Amino acid sequence: MTDRVPPFLEARRSIRAFTAEPVARADLDVLVEAACIAPAPHHSRPWRFVVVDGADAKEQLARGMGARWRRDLEGDGTPTSRVDELIEASHGKIVGAPAVILGCLTWEGLDRYPDEARRRAEWGMALLSLGAAAENLMVAAVARGLASCWVAAPIFCPEEARDALALPAEWLPHAMVLVGRPDPEYVGRARPPVPLDELRTFR
């Protein structure tokens, strides 16, 4: 990574291990508020954030998402032992995090079109804005001494994640961020250098 990248962006890392210390809801609200100042189409706010910090709710979410993933893996012909291993690891990440923040998409504030191509583009804009919101959330977490890890799994099972928590029908989870105090013994992966000449071009 070049030294031109601002340090506050460098500080955001994917941390997958946390202490058992709970995260104050006031701190979690700050993270959600940071997410909500991200750019979005039409000056809308097409996202809803669900903060999951109760043990029962985390268990329900892990089970609901895990059941769908199990069906998908079995449909792919994945060996049962490997399916069990993956589901157990996913379950442990969710229930082991002090807090889980689900980013859900809604159609509120978005334009509706009669054709599928433009409806898909409109939803795509909302999904891009949710990514920006998640980045804001994670950068804000670093500023408060918290660690985070973005988990993309809900995009594969939005209905199951929604129903596991009895959310409104129009709230569709598409992003999940695990939040907590970083485990001091956890060593993250080294961040690889950015091969700028491969990833960027000028015209």
Radius of gyration: 18 Å
Largest sheet: 4 strands, antiparallel
Tell me, rounded to a whole number, the average pLDDT: 95
Strand order of the largest sheet: 1-2-4-3
> What is the count of helical runs?
7
Give the proportion of residues in helices: 40-55%
Q: What is the general shape?
A: globular
**Class per helix and strand makeup:** alpha+beta
Measured between the Cα atoms of the first and last residue, the distance is 24 Å
Order of helices and strands: HHEHHEHEHEH
By DSSP, the count of extended strands is: 4
- Estimate the strand proportion: 5-15%
Spans of at least 5 consecutive residues whose pLDDT stays below 50 are none
Account of the protein in words:
It is a single chain. It contains seven helices and four strands. It has helices at 7-10, 25-35, 55-75, 80-96, 116-143, 158-164, 196-199, and strands spanning 47-52, 99-105, 147-151, 172-180. Strands 1-2-4-3 form a four-stranded antiparallel beta sheet, sandwiched between helices. Helix 3 (55-75) runs antiparallel to helix 4. It is globular and about 45 Å long.
Q: What topology emerges from the helices and strands here?
A:
Elements (H helix, E strand, L loop, with lengths): L6 H4 L14 H11 L11 E6 L2 H21 L4 H17 L2 E7 L10 H28 L3 E5 L6 H7 L7 E9 L15 H4 L4
Antiparallel strand pairs: 1-2, 2-4, 3-4
Helix pairs in contact: 2-5, 3-4, 3-6
